[in-house]
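Do me a favour: review this protein, sequence plus structure tokens, and tell me how the chain folds. Record follows.
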Amino acid sequence: MIPIIPTIIATRAGLEILQKAKEWFYPDKNLKEAEAILSKRIADDVGSLQEQLCAHRQVIDKLVNQVKADKDMLEKHNEVLINLSESVQQIEMALSQLRRISSWAMATAGLSLLVAILFRMLK
């Protein structure tokens, strides 16, 4: 069984790195642009209704783009998490092999010590 605390710490560090990567590479630019479009003052005449409709379409387009970017980010996060879980499984197998080898080494060392003591006593 692998030590749980280092695994938790490694997972937390990985998730923090992913969060920073999201902020650096996928800023919420589309949301900010959508808010800027909505904050424009529009005249109260008949033409303003068409402008509002156009502005709302632009906002919807920006929001759709943001949803697509978030979906891509989630897919990339899922890939990273899958890779992390596969790595943890590989580490677990390697750790069990190392434990087995160390047990055999300790048993061999104990047997060697016992044989040395027997030879010493028989002399």
